[in-house]
Write a structure and sequence with these properties.
single chain, globular, alpha+beta, 2 domains, 5-stranded antiparallel sheet, 152 residues, 10 strands
């Protein structure tokens, strides 16, 4: 469903209950109730494709420095509602405050299917980092719209 970088190993894999993980693969499977937060190996076993899970994990590792710079990169603006917005690489990213927590949504216009971050965060920087993870996930897993089809 999504992959997020926690910045450092700080969570135990919910499938094996033993591996300490930094890069969390959020998985759903008919054999397990709800969503599980897993490490790469358990995610690979769950989807019966260890190479695919390892590829996602490797990509997250290579994106780690870009992710660190994402919250402070040029282009962010704050709108009248206090939401933080940026348009980058064909995506529109909105980071918003709801109550005491922050969340984010990523879309790729003109097909405006929204992809929300899985969690809520205590600060805007953490929400922006999760938005980066969501944007990368959409980039890798959701087909890009066909511009010719949109003209019909």
């Amino acid at each position: 469903m999504n992959v997020e970088d926690l910045g450092e190993p700080q969570m135990i894999c919910e499938m094996c209950d033993s591996a300490e993980i930094r890069f969390v693969h959020f998985m759903q499977n008919d054999r397990y109730p709800g969503t599980l937060a897993c490490g790469a190996i358990c995610a690979g076993h769950m989807e019966s494709d260890l190479l695919r899970a390892e590829k996602r994990d490797k990509k997250m590792r290579s994106d780690a420095s870009r992710r660190q710079r994402f919250p402070t990169r040029a282009g962010w603006r704050v709108n009248e509602k206090g939401n933080h917005l940026i348009k980058t690489n064909g995506y529109r990213v909105t980071v918003f405050k709801k109550g005491l927590a922050w969340g984010a949504v990523v879309s790729r216009p003109p097909i405006a299917t929204p992809y929300f971050t899985r969690e809520k965060f205590s600060n805007v920087t953490a929400a922006k980092m999760a938005a980066f993870d969501t944007m990368r996930f959409v980039e890798d897993n959701v087909p890009k719209p066909d511009p010719f089809r949109l003209l019909l």
